[in-house]
Fold this sequence. Notes:
Blueprint: H1 27-31, H2 46-49, E1 53-59, H3 62-70, E2 75-83, H4 92-96, E3 103-110, H5 117-126, E4 135-136, E5 139-140, E6 146-150, H6 153-168, E7 179-182, E8 186-188, H7 196-199, H8 204-220
Parallel strand pairs: 6-7
Antiparallel strand pairs: 1-3, 1-6, 2-3, 2-8, 4-5
Amino acid sequence: MNIVRITFFTLLILVSTSCRPKEKSTQPEMAHQEPIENPETPKLTPSELQQYETAYFASGCFWCVEAIFESVKGVKEVYSGYSGGTEKNPTYEQVSYGKTHHAESVEVYYDPKVVSFTQLVQVFFGSHDPTTLNQQGPDRGAQYRSIAFYKNDEQKKIITDYMAKLEAEHVYGRPIVTEVKKFDKFYRAEDYHQDYEKLHPNNSYIQNVSIPRLNRFKKNFKSFLKEDVH
């Protein structure tokens, strides 16, 4: 596959909205703002999920990242959560305010017969700006840093080889700062964060950041999309 040159990420306009609540007292109101009926099928059961492989990535607000991977064919389920740190059972408040070493991350369940780990890595790098240190769009802090997690040496090589290719072809014009990190533990985020973009389409952050980011990805990766994704 030819590498898509994603220069628009370096021109991303920062908006006033943020994935992080502005103050503690606003978190519940923000997180549960005007939910709609979930139009999708229910989450797969733990036994159903066991038949698929998993991959883990961090690239900014997990509301955005979850929606992007959910649009990819061969991806069966995606969960928002926390990974990359050492603290056990972190909460959204702790992570979003930078009180842990975790980053907002996603857990991707995928069918390797349909989509490969290499392709998921391409999705990861093609859907965010990996050159901004501890920042993605309007979200700033190490909790929004870029991390490609690997579970074995083969996956690590896939990630590092692809990064080297991107660098050699000067795709971004600036050095990639993505961490390549051995996967340890993933903690699922609170229930109200799952499928957040689908359930809160009128949220200002979703309108101004998540949906435009998803649409840019869909425009550049049409061959990766599920048939019902437009």
